[in-house]
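Hello again, I could really use a second opinion on something today. I owe you a coffee for this, so here goes:
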Amino acid sequence: MSLIRIDRSEIETMGRIERLNLVNSCTGYKSANLIATISNEGHTNVAVFSSVTHLGSDPALLGFILRPTTVPRHTYKNIKEYGYFSVNHITTEQIADAHQSSANYPIDVSEFDVTNLEPVYHGGCPVPFVKGSPVKLLCKYVNEYLIEENNCIHIIASIEAVFYEEELLSPDNWLQLDKGKVVAINGLDGYVQTQLIERFAYARVQKKEA
């Protein structure tokens, strides 16, 4: 199979869609999550994100990327207002509705009302979670950093609570996500199933035998 090379100069002259597809898919699979929020007035919002990443376990932190706020970003507005939000893993049964949540609905229209996604509430918290998601995180806004190179915003949040389906949990507190039919994202619009191949012990330095 021949190897194709595309230089930066060629990427910069591509059409917008071709460039988006190539650059978003070439970095590999990404997490698939629905971020659900609520405003101070009680308006809910849910949107698909593929940029949620682990930042540390002590303290438990995660981050995600928001595109420039040159247009209204309802997720960002609600998080800044209320301070809390939820991160919900997407399953194979939810992919069509999760993807539809990326449409540019007006701020007074909740994606919960125009898709089959349903809000659910846990532990007396007013922040909505997504019904059917096997892993749900209650998060608190901590900080944000402007990425000057492209005007995106890196949101930093603490994990305040974790909700998960019992059958995902292993004896050492590891969550096996494929048991919950959790998907990943390839590029902007490709959803893929996950399957555990192998789990290894903690890697230690080994001496090569003579």
